[in-house]
Amino acid sequence: MNILFDERLDGELVRRDKSEVLTDLQQAVPDMTLLHREEDLRPFECDGLAAYRVLPMLVALPETFDQVKELLKCCHALSVPVVTRGAGTGLSGGALPLEQGVLLVMSRFNQILKVDPDARLARVQPGVRNLAISEAAAPYGLYYAPDPSSQIACSIGGNVAENAGGVHCLKYGLTVHNVMRVDVLTIEGEHMTLGAESFDAPGFDLLALMNGSEGMLGVVTEITVKLLPKPETAKVLMASFDDIEKAGRAVGDIIAAGIIPGGLEMMDKLAIKAAEDFIKAGYPVEAEAILLCELDGVEADVDDDCDTVRRVLEAAGATDIQQARDEAERAKFWAGRKNAFPAVGRMSPDYYCMDGTIPRRELPRVLKGIAALSEESGLAVANVFHAGDGNMHPLILFDANKEGQLALAEEVGGKILELCVAAGGSITGEHGVGREKINQMCSQFQADEISVFHALKAAFDPQRLLNPGKNIPTLARCAEFGAMHVHNNELPHPELPRF
Amino acid sequence: MTERAIADRDIAGALCEQVRSAYDARTPLRIVGGDTRAFYGRPVEGQALQMAEHSGIVSYDPVELVVTVRAGTRLSDLQEVLAEKHQMLGFEPPMFGEASTIGGAVATGLSGPRRPWAGAARDFVLGTRIITQEGKLLRFGGEVMKNVAGYDLSRLMAGAQGTLGVLTDISFKVLPIPTATHSLRLTVGLDEALKKLAELGRKPLPITAAAWHHGELFLRLEGGKSSVSATQASLGGEPLDANFWQELRDHTHAFFACINGQALWRLSLPPNTAPLALDIPEADIFYDWAGSQRWVKTTLDASTLRDACRAVGGHATCYTPKLQGGAAEPFTPLNAVVEKYHRNLKAELDAHGIFNPGRLYAAF
After folding, report:
1. Alpha-carbon dihedral A249, A251, A257, A259, rounded to 10 degrees
2. Are the C-beta atoms of B349 and A456 separated by less than 8 Å?
3. pLDDT above 70 coverage of chain B, percent
4. Using only C-alpha atoms, what is the Rg of chain A?
């Protein structure tokens, strides 16, 4: 199913003549870079979800707060939609442009404004790369905790928009737990500071709301993040299992032993093989599953915890347990996991990465369901899993050049997400809904809940000019999509008119 | 106390019904759990929506680190159930009376001494069931650690004091109770204490609470046995009864008795803020959260306190009700733009102003 913006389902957009909008914007913000020629627009036609491409009407590359403000005011006055983009690494099409819209690219806001080691805060512009914050904090023994696997390239503004996660979420939280304050411009160009350098701010927690709102409520112009002292040490254990369910149970056993690992990752046989072929991380290719368990903190505690975890893993039936002997080996163990996506990419012309979350106890059932879908469709699925926090990344292998395979991959992906929802989970743990999972939102939420989301949006952007068509589906779309996915012969949202 | 001993009562249907009637009749509702936090915020005039009967643990799986509980469940009951499995609520919610409920704890969004290290109430909220203005029971968020589908309404509800909807069920991420704990006190002056706290804060030490009052620095160490005993050895000091933190959290510590027309204020300031130049005797200031949260007993007026806090990027909340001599506006007024979007949000989610009207601010 084509996920590109469809006015019939996603709502009408105001049509403006491109040259008129260009002239108006050039007048309103004379010193701002504004791209309008097709060859200049082309590099911005997609984000990390490269299967979908749309040429934006215009691309704005502001460098100052005032430019963003004037741009928004002008777009608001013209009713021209604005899609905000950071580094463009997002995997859910959250920054997919609109033909009738301006793409607001924040990448030139790339300054680290202040690192305050005594307050353990960093004040940064939204275009700063995630990893650059930790690098700037490193001389003080501090770091920024959330580490999405794209951290080398992704920007902190995009992290806020998507409430990005990473491999250390269970212990250190998501972006929302690590951002203290954001400066936001509304679609009308008004400036708001949400949150504070103190641990709370008066009024509603609009800061929490802004995290993960996918650029639908405002444009973030500055961010203050919390820095943490770097753990004294981190040690990693790798356990092999001859059965993926045993590995799944071992995860629960580690938590039940009162241990919250810094990272707890699982990979299945196909992912292990892909990673080993690519990285030579020393993974056991004969294993059905491996667990990587990282324990971090004060040296003495970490040693105690390593002993405990080793005992738990043995009791859970691990066929082999290795502890990285030194920092180099630890890095090697992680390199396999961190490169799992590109590794799988080498095995197949294309892959489609899913991002469902489930309660961990449901893992065996969901994995069986995924295996059945894989068999049924003939598409291989490699499983990479943030096991500690129940976030699955099944990678569906396909070849887009073969007729119908992209559609098939999307169909399998959609069904996997529905499995996650049925298991009490969510369609997205950290990649966001964007455009990619807009239809699956209709599986996770009822029409009344979606209406509340729309009400919330209306409080900030009643004209729906900020990133229209992302994150929250229209009820018309749910009715249309629901008609295609009838479960137990029950039509979802029977109360809605259908096209 | 076991899970069974908590009354397992689901009265969500009746609560929805009462909200529907209130919506139709435009009757303001005053949402009441254990009524132990009524002092916090502006007084609400309205028909009581009694939540205490809506109680019980809906589900608890210690291995998942997730508990789902009805809003009327007593905080003490929930904590006991969690403690049986060596787990706890990470935000260490204050309890201002035995009747205190978990719904009230989340609605007020208050967090205890552990807050700077572990996170706030909202940080542990994974999902909620909410009664909307039309009396519909809807679900937001869920029971999984990571979930970025849709807007995060659940976290928005934490601290909104029931002004945007009625919380009926809440799912939390829970944490294991640390294996080892040790609290200590050190005799040290304020300036040196703040300097020491900034220094300690930059190191990966197992500190989970830090307060200073009247010449003494109080620290709580929690974590693995080895690190706690090593840190204890390096810091020295005298042992401190762990109840100290509970007394500080629940305001049962002797400090919190106000005299001679004093009001109790909470100043929330950026980490590492120097002592404010306010005319308040040192004995009437209690530094918590390593200095970020300061309890102040004073007769100074609201604007003097708020101006001083604003100048350093903080804010001030009055804990003494107006009737007992506190400020008319307990919460720091919002700037015009932020207030506009508060009003918009309130208008969308509570068009007739039936949910705790005026609780946070007069206008909504």
Report:
1. -170
2. yes
3. 99
4. 23
pLDDT of residue A51: 87
Q: Does the beta carbon of B198 lie under 8 angstroms from any beta carbon of chain A?
A: yes
Q: Which residue is closest to A303 within chain B, CA to CA?
A: B226
Contact A340, B259 (CB under 8 A): no
Are B66 and B173 a contacting pair, CB within 8 Å? yes
Give percent helix, percent strand, percent coil of chain A, each to the nearest 5.
40, 20, 40
- The span from the CA of B136 to the CA of B16, in Å, is 6
In a mutational test of the A interface, the residue from B144, B172, B182 whose CB has the highest number of chain A CBs within 10 Å is B144
Burial profile A249-263: b = 16 or more Cβ within 10 angstroms, e = fewer: bbbbbbbbebbbbbb
What letter would DSSP give residue A470?
S
Tokens of A89: 């690494």
Give the separation between CA B132 and CA B130, rounded to whole angstroms: 6
3-state helix, strand, coil in chain B (%, to 5): 30, 25, 40
Q: pLDDT tens digits for B218-241?
A: 999 999 999 999 999 999 999 999
Q: Which secondary-structure segment (H or E) carries B306?
A: helix B302-311
SS3 of residue A124 by DSSP:
strand
Interchain CB contacts (distance < 8 Å): A and B: 275
Chain A positions touching B160 (Cβ under 8 A) are 204-205
For A102, residues 6+ apart whose C-beta sits below 8 A from its C-beta are A21, A25, A56, A57, A58, A59, A60, A71, A75, A80, A81, A82, A83
- DSSP sequence for A211-223: TT-TTSS-EEEEE
What single-letter DSSP state applies at residue B254?
A: G
Classify A427 as helix, strand or coil: coil
Task: Name A449's Cβ contacts closer than 8 Å, sequence gap at least 6.
Answer: B138, B139, B140, B150
Q: How far off is chain B from A280, nearest CA to CA, in Å?
A: 30
SS3 A477: helix
DSSP string covering A231-251: PSEEEEEEEEESSHHHHHHHH
> Residue A486: what pLDDT?
40
d(CA A240, CA B178): 29
- Per the listing, tokens 């887009």 go with A400
The rounded distance, in Å, linking the Cα atoms of B210 and B116 is 9
Asked if A246 and B219 touch (Cβ cutoff 8 Å), the reply is no
Instruction: Determine if residue B245 is left, alpha or beta; phi over 0 gives left, psi from -120 to 50 gives alpha, anything else beta.
Output: alpha
What residues in B contact A190, CB-CB < 8 Å?
337, 340
Low-confidence ranges of chain A (pLDDT < 70): 1-2, 482-499
3-state secondary structure at position A280 = coil
- CB pair distance less than 8 Å for A255 and B203: no
* Optimal mutation site among A204, A308, A446, interface B, most CBs of chain B within 10 A: A204
Q: Which candidate in A198, A438, A440 is best for mutational testing of the B interface (most B CBs within 10 A)?
A: A198
The string of pLDDT tens digits covering residues A239-256 is 999 999 899 999 999 999
Q: What is the 3-state secondary structure (H, E, C) of B271-305?
A: CCCCCCCCCCCHHHEEEEHHHCEEEEEECCCHHHH
Neighbour order of strands in the sheet with A82-85? A33-35, A58-61, A102-105, A82-85
CB contact under 8 A, A456 and B349: yes
Q: Please state the pTM of the whole predicted model.
A: 0.96
